[in-house]
Write a structure and sequence with these properties.
alpha/beta; seven-stranded mixed sheet; 18% helix; 26% strand
Length: 281
């Protein structure tokens, strides 16, 4: 199982000649496993992914965590949707309000987007999921609802050699009166338990989080606490605040690392990063 990052809601480019290390595209991650292509979320990064995607795929699976605009804004610009020889499957959270299809159609319609779903060469195959266990091409997948405003899923992928957990928007401290010491009542624990690699929300500093409780996101400190509770091998901090420069992100990250002193690998996620769990990253 190979994971590539096309968007992690990174920092905005600096006005000067400095390199933008972490990138500015919103959430989009590609999983390659055997001959299947799975894409996690349809943020702005999916437009670039579509441009460089292997032309040999005739079937693509896009798994959405939720339908906030930063996770869906790139869907209409994903070129394989306009290829009549490719079948695109859209997976996303079930909600009591209305069917997933109706919610997706709202995006694929004016004034938000000029092309309607019914105008695509192949109408995407829609899959509504909740607390579900399923497989795509032999890859075992588990989805659970997690703490974030609106119906939101986290995902766990297991190929028999490694476990990858994806929770880009998540507030694990919410809902537990004893976080991070009570796994039974901590959102997302079963998804991340003993994962080899965890992508997890780390938008705030601990001070910023105090005034944003309930907004659906985590501090870097909270992400480290959650990863420690779950016993993960490697944590990648995801969903950066795009208003922070690369330098500011690294300053916040280094302060959290010094404060928490985790005994496992922790790094800031960046666009273009590739992880191969066959080699146990």
């Amino acid at each position: 199982m190979i994971i590539k990052v096309w968007g992690c809601r990174g920092s905005l480019p600096s006005p000067g000649p400095e390199n933008n290390i972490y990138g500015g595209n919103t959430s989009c991650v590609q999983i390659s496993y055997k001959n299947i292509c799975i894409i996690l979320d349809g943020g702005s990064g999916i437009q670039r992914l579509g441009k460089y995607l292997d032309s040999g795929f005739t079937e693509i699976h896009i798994l959405l965590t939720h339908l906030h605009i930063d996770h869906t804004m790139g869907l209409g610009f994903f070129q394989p949707l306009y290829d009549p020889n490719i079948t695109v499957h859209l997976w996303g959270p079930s909600a009591t309000v209305e069917p997933l299809l109706n919610r997706l159609r709202r995006y694929f319609s004016p004034p938000l987007f000029p092309v309607r779903m019914n105008d695509l060469p192949n109408h995407p195959v829609i899959h509504e999921i909740d607390n579900s266990d399923f497989e795509i091409g032999g890859l075992k997948i588990k989805s659970n609802y997690i703490c974030h405003p609106g119906a939101t899923l986290g995902y766990r992928f297991d190929d028999g050699e490694g476990v990858f957990t994806y929770m880009p928007d998540h507030e694990p401290a919410l809902g537990s009166s004893n976080f991070p010491y009570d796994p039974e009542w901590t959102s997302g624990f079963e998804l991340a338990r003993n994962a080899d690699l965890l992508f997890h929300d780390g938008e705030y500093t601990e001070e910023e989080y105090k005034s944003r409780v309930g907004w659906g996101h985590s501090s870097i400190d909270g992400a480290i606490d959650f990863a420690r509770l779950c016993g993960v091998r490697k944590l990648c901090i995801f969903h950066h605040d795009p208003l922070n420069s690369d330098e500011k992100l690294e300053e916040i990250f280094n302060a959290s690392m010094k404060s928490k002193n985790p005994q496992f690998v922790v790094e800031l996620c960046r666009e273009g990063a590739v992880y191969n769990l066959g080699g146990k990253e």
